[in-house]
Amino acid sequence: MHPDFAEFCAASQMRNPASIWTFYSDMIRVRKQHRALVYGAYQLVDPHHESVHAFTRTEGRETYLAVLNFTEDRVEWDVPAEHRGVWSVVISNFGRATAGQELGAKIELGPFDGIIWRREFV
Predict the structure, then answer these.
(1) In a shared domain, residues 14 and 58
(2) Helix residue ranges per DSSP H, the chain
């Protein structure tokens, strides 16, 4: 192994917008920007699903919905009726659109896919 492997590896990760380093940097930034993700009330959404960990964080008029697939398989997840509607994507590890998105009855998650949406109530 090259003696400067760690330096080159880290430098390569930092330059790559699709790298794990970039994703975690973005996650830290998002967490700092959205207070509810840290201090909001936590509610597990689908406690019996074998592959998906879904939860909300709510503070004031903001609700965040996080849906995470912890398997190496594609998963279809049934969105509970109370969480359907228009949301904005906050962050996704596979670069989904960020504009208002209609969350229907089902979503498909890729292997190890994760996404956080935000909805503000008036």
Answers:
(1) no
(2) 5-15, 20-33, 36-39
> Residue 116 is encoded by which pair of tokens?
């956080």
For residue 13, give its domain range: 1-33
User: pTM above 0.90?
Assistant: no
What is the reported pLDDT for 98?
Answer: 59
Q: Are 63 and 85 in contact (CB under 8 A)?
A: no
Same domain? 58 vs 84: yes
| Residues 42-79: tens digit of each pLDDT | 999 999 999 999 999 999 999 999 999 999 999 999 99
Do 63 and 6 sit in the same domain of this protein? no
Q: What are the residues whose beta carbons fall under 8 Å from the beta carbon of 56, sequence distance 6 or more? A: 40, 42, 43, 45, 63, 64, 65, 66, 83
